[in-house]
Specification:
Helix content is 35%, strand content 23%. By secondary structure, it is an alpha+beta fold.
Length: 263
């Protein structure tokens, strides 16, 4: 639990940062209410006392740029390893797309597909369509997720990803693949992942560069990261044969007259 002194330091730093960037705030931004909501959330945020007050304030500032509310769980400040990570929630992502899409959006949403649900994709007369019929109150394993955007002009786009695809993205590109967002809110992160992929096809026009940067920071993914190498399987060595083997560290050695090794 953060001490009152630490919270005061965060409050003062956040107020100064907002005042210095007030021209970058969205229309209708209420500084007093935003800071009050931030402090209400932070006083119950486990681990925040281990994080530097200035860095916490900078994280909260990103929510201010985007007009998202930490108290309403549209975004989060997540302590992890002594650092604070800014992340938008799935509903925060929806709010931003509706507000900043160049092509007016009627609705946008993402759904989880669980084992037993019916999900099909079809192209009919050149038009993409999907059909989703979930089992009511299905708590089975998640096998995928999809996101749909409906435009006011009648157009529609969607993206679908299998659970395996999402896990590959998580493993190779997530900034915190084993962080609390993934371990505690797996379903929400699955929906956010497929929604983010859909957003690549939706032109968003933010009012300021600060908003655009905050949106990118909230993605959880760093697509410039090198994918992790595939895990090597143990070799099957036939008894009596000589083979050169390589262990996980890259060291090579010679296996002589080995017994049969099972993979």
């Amino acid at each position: 639990m953060a001490t009152s002194q630490h919270l005061v330091a965060i409050h003062n730093n956040l107020e100064k940062l907002i005042d210095s960037k007030i021209e970058a705030m969205p229309a209708g931004f209420n500084k007093t209410r935003f800071i009050q909501n931030c402090m209400t959330v932070l006083q119950d945020t486990k681990g925040i006392e281990k994080c530097d007050a200035v860095s916490v304030a900078r994280t909260m500032l990103k929510g201010a740029f985007l007009g998202l509310d930490f108290f309403n769980k549209e975004c989060y400040a997540i302590p992890y390893g002594g650092q604070v990570q800014f992340q938008t929630d799935y509903k925060g992502e929806k709010k931003l797309v509706k507000k900043y899409s160049v092509r007016p959006v009627k609705d946008i949403y993402a759904k989880l597909v669980r084992e037993g649900d019916e999900f099909t994709e079809e192209i009919k007369d050149g038009q993409q369509t999907i059909h989703f019929k979930p089992i009511p109150f299905n708590n089975g394993p998640i096998i995928g997720a999809f996101a749909v955007v409906l435009f006011e002009d009648g157009g529609m786009m969607y993206e679908a990803m299998s659970a395996e695809e999402i896990e590959e993205v998580r493993k190779n590109y997530s900034k915190q693949a084993d962080g609390p967002a993934w371990t505690k809110s797996k379903g929400e992160m699955y929906k956010k992942t497929v929604l983010r992929r859909l957003c690549k096809h939706i032109e968003l026009d933010f009012d300021t560069i600060e908003q655009a940067r905050a949106f990118e920071d909230a993605s959880d993914f760093d697509m410039t990261k090198e994918p992790k190498p595939a895990q090597k399987s143990p070799l099957n060595i036939v008894e009596g044969e000589y083979e050169v083997i390589e262990d996980e560290s890259g060291e090579k050695g010679e296996l002589v007259q080995g017994d049969l090794l099972q993979s």
